[in-house]
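Handout, page 2. Input:
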Amino acid sequence: MYRFLLSRQWVLLTLLALVLIPVMIELGFWQFHRHQHRVAQNTLIADNLAADPAPVEDLTSPGHTVPRKDYWRRVSATGTFDAEHEVVVRRRTNAEDRVGFHVLTPLELRDGKVLLVNRGWVKAAADQKAFPKVPAPPAGEVTVVGRLMADETTAGSGIKDLKGLPPRQIMLINSKDLAESLGRQVLGGYVDLTTPEPKNGSPELIGSPDHDSIGPHMAYAVQWWLFAAGVPVGWWVMVRRERRDRESAAAAPAAEDVAAPA
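Output:
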């Protein structure tokens, strides 16, 4: 009755189905784990943004690698901006996806250490090699509050660290690299400034990270699992159809013999 399942065509089709089922199940779990990661990250961001600002030197120090649990943690620092050693970070976008620069200004703390502060976004000059127009930072001693971020790397950001850039322009914010050029003790990581807000809205402050959207990963996981469940159902439907077609084909000659005149 089902001997056709031993044919080459059906053996290959059955093997394909047996391969697809675990692959689709695994793809579903991959999307599910991405969903879990997104949910955990949203919780981390929300908790760190809601926490009271901590003194920055409680969470980082020269040469320190900021751990993931401290990403987006609100921190405070008091010091004096060093506009002379200010640099800009190339190919950065604002909330409207316009390409420009981020303004990175060293903040000299009371103990002589330096904190890198991302003061926000400015538009690019007509000539990409020219230093953009950047509003001066507040003069004198100032207390800043911002979100602690880890040093940027090519592996983590996907941004290639180009060499031979125009003076005072960089591709990645990396405290270790800038400590060498400054010749100072620079705290690990950097801070996205949130207060004080700049006069006239420039530089544009970096917006808070999204921590409400969970993305489509859970829906994709369910889809893959439904596909996995559908494979054996589809296989069985095809088997039944093949059996019915074969039975109909076998019955047709017999019907013709009965109908033929004696």
